[in-house]
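Q: What residues go here?
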């Protein structure tokens, strides 16, 4: 079978709606299978439509949860972390992303990923300021590892 849009491309894939042969280059992957560009939905799913109000709600949730978790981080583990920080980073990133997700009615997307990563940075800065250090100290290697791992976890939690 040949692709309808690319006649020189051999394919075994067909549109799930109109049965038109399509290749992976022109296939549109939807939640109900592959569709040709003519049958694919014209707008993204509501889960991925993040308007300004949802973005503001997510930013407020990231700010509040980041500050609260940063203070808890300072209270529970007052000194430097070492490798125990990896476990803390997993919990921190997931908790902040979950608060953003909850505040935005389980929406996801790039803008909310950035907001959640900023919430992780707020937690790190809050912990450092409460400890009487600079916001981003130069000699806190494991703190930066926690920051990066937590941001990756938060971003992964809110991916498409």
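A:
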């Amino acid at each position: 079978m040949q692709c309808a849009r690319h006649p020189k491309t051999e394919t075994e894939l067909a549109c799930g709606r109109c049965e038109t042969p399509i290749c992976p280059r022109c296939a549109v992957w939807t939640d109900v299978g592959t569709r040709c560009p003519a049958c694919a939905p014209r707008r993204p799913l509501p889960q991925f439509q993040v308007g300004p109000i949802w973005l503001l709600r997510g930013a407020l949730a990231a700010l509040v949860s980041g500050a609260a978790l940063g203070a808890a981080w300072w209270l529970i583990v007052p000194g430097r972390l070492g490798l125990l920080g990896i476990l803390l980073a997993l919990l921190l990133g997931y908790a902040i992303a979950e608060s953003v997700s909850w505040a935005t009615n389980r929406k996801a997307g790039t803008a909310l990923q950035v907001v959640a990563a900023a919430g992780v940075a707020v937690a790190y800065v809050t912990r450092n300021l409460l400890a009487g250090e600079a916001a981003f100290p130069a000699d806190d290697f494991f703190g930066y590892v926690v920051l990066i791992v937590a941001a990756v976890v938060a971003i992964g939690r809110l991916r498409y």
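A: Context that may help when evaluating the design: The chain has two domains: 1-42, 46-157. The two ends are 32 Å apart (CA to CA).
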